[in-house]
Amino acid sequence: MGAVQFSGMVVTYDSRKPYGSAITKVTIDGSELNLNQVYSVVTNDFCAVGGDGYTTFAKGTDQFNTGILVRDCMNNAVADTKNLEIVDDGRLVVLK
Description:
Helices cover 21% and strands 19% of the residues. It is α+β, with helices and mostly antiparallel strands. The chain has one domain (9-83, 91-95). The longest helix is centred in the last third of the chain and has 12 residues, at 70-81. The chain is globular. It starts with 8 loop residues before the first strand and ends with a strand.
């Protein structure tokens, strides 16, 4: 399974815990993830159909394919900003 990139939330990960229970906290806009709420997710078409083992995406009921290639999104972002700055924004908190 590949590494998922995410934005708009903070994930706390405890590396001492076993696979499947290592994520100990998720917040979105400062509020804890609500397992009874439906959230919108953007991904590529490969993961959307369960690629790399992300079968949860394939179970989504309201999937919509924009037809926009990730490559084109990245090209447009670079062209629009002319400057990319990589910063650690604290979206992943790893407990050791």
